[in-house]
Amino acid sequence: MRVTTEAELAEAIRGAAGPLDIRGGGTRRGAGVGERLEVGISGITLYEPGALTLIAGAGTPLAEIEAAVAAEGQRLPFEPAHWGAVLGLAGASTIGGVVATNASGPRRVQAGACRDSLIGVRFVDGSGVVVKNGGRVMKNVTGYDLVKLMAGSWGTLGVISEVAFKLLPAAPTQATLVMDLPIVEGVAAVSAALGSPFDVSAAGWLPGLGAVVRVEGLGASVDYRAGRLIELLACYAPRIERDGSAAIWADLAAVRPLQGRVGDLWRFSVKPSEAPGIAARLGGEVVLDLGGGLIWALVPEGTDARALAAPYTGHATCLRGASPRFELEAPGVAALSRGLRARFDPRGILNPGVMG
């Protein structure tokens, strides 16, 4: 079943006789339980470049939104990540799927996550009721902040129909420092860069390339900060990449080194200082983002990567494989989660089982 308006979406949920498998572009997860409900509410309904504000239907392709804001010299601050290829899923990512999974890219270390740029949302809850929260300005704080609650809820609390974002001007210049280092030294290098006053906008580690650190902004500022970082990281022998900088971060955001590979795909959110030890215990191929705070790991099929990686501080998500998708929640958190789902989806029909 496919819906193209919010009214159709509400009617479909009210009339559902059983579980619904909520879908946008189908690039964030595999098949779910129940009847498939595809959200095709598409189109940019408001874009005010002068106010740095955009509103769009949840089914609007992410590529369409990125092209529209780029034409005005602007961008989504959180550098939304494209996961379809690494998960082996066809389709085109939608902005609603980005919000539902809080899919954020390398610039998260500087600009925050998707939820931090999201200023308004409309959704239909499990009873078929249309809910609106937030608005067109950052300081709209009336009532409960359901905007942040919906970001990363994976469609279990409501089906998003419309989203509103605050944008930022695109940086005219960028440069990347590349250091041919193994993971242990690489994490030390990017940690030093992130702890510096030179406004690093991304930091990670890629197999075959090593540690990478990005600075963005006006040309003179980028030149100055890159130069100072080269001095700071001189013991790691950095080289500067300008023409290929954008491609490096596109590869990292899409986890391109792990694309097309056989195995289960995991994502660990951990303390950066723990990343080298976790990567060593996992023993497979990894990509590091957020200065080591995010580990993408490829392990043999059927492997419990959580057991391999232990001990660690944080949580792990199985994005491709048979293992439970999310970590078990602490009892208190689990009780809160059950209470929220009971309030927003009393029949338990929205993406059942996706978040436990």
Could you provide a short overview of the structure?
The protein has helices at 6-14, 62-70, 84-87, 95-101, 108-111, 114-117, 146-150, 183-194, 219-232, 245-253, 275-282, 305-309, 331-344, and strands at 2-3, 20-23, 35-39, 44-48, 53-57, 74-75, 118-124, 130-134, 159-166, 168-169, 173-179, 202-206, 210-217, 239-241, 264-270, 285-289, 294-299, 314-320. The chain is of the alpha+beta class.
What report would you give on this structure?
This protein has 356 residues and is of the alpha+beta class. It is built from 13 helices and 18 strands. The protein has helices spanning 6-14, 62-70, 84-87, 95-101, 108-111, 114-117, 146-150, 183-194, 219-232, 245-253, 275-282, 305-309, 331-344, and strands at residues 2-3, 20-23, 35-39, 44-48, 53-57, 74-75, 118-124, 130-134, 159-166, 168-169, 173-179, 202-206, 210-217, 239-241, 264-270, 285-289, 294-299, 314-320. It has a five-stranded antiparallel β-sheet. Strand 16 (285-289) and strand 17 form a beta hairpin. The protein is globular and about 65 Å long. The mean pLDDT is 93.
Task: Spell out the key features of this protein.
356 residues; 18 strands; alpha+beta; four-stranded antiparallel sheet
Topology (elements, then pairings):
Blueprint: E1 2-3, H1 6-14, E2 20-23, E3 35-39, E4 44-48, E5 53-57, H2 62-70, E6 74-75, H3 84-87, H4 95-101, H5 108-111, H6 114-117, E7 118-124, E8 130-134, H7 146-150, E9 159-166, E10 168-169, E11 173-179, H8 183-194, E12 202-206, E13 210-217, H9 219-232, E14 239-241, H10 245-253, E15 264-270, H11 275-282, E16 285-289, E17 294-299, H12 305-309, E18 314-320, H13 331-344
Parallel strand pairs: 1-3, 2-3
Antiparallel strand pairs: 4-5, 5-9, 6-10, 7-8, 7-9, 11-13, 11-14, 12-13, 15-17, 15-18, 16-17
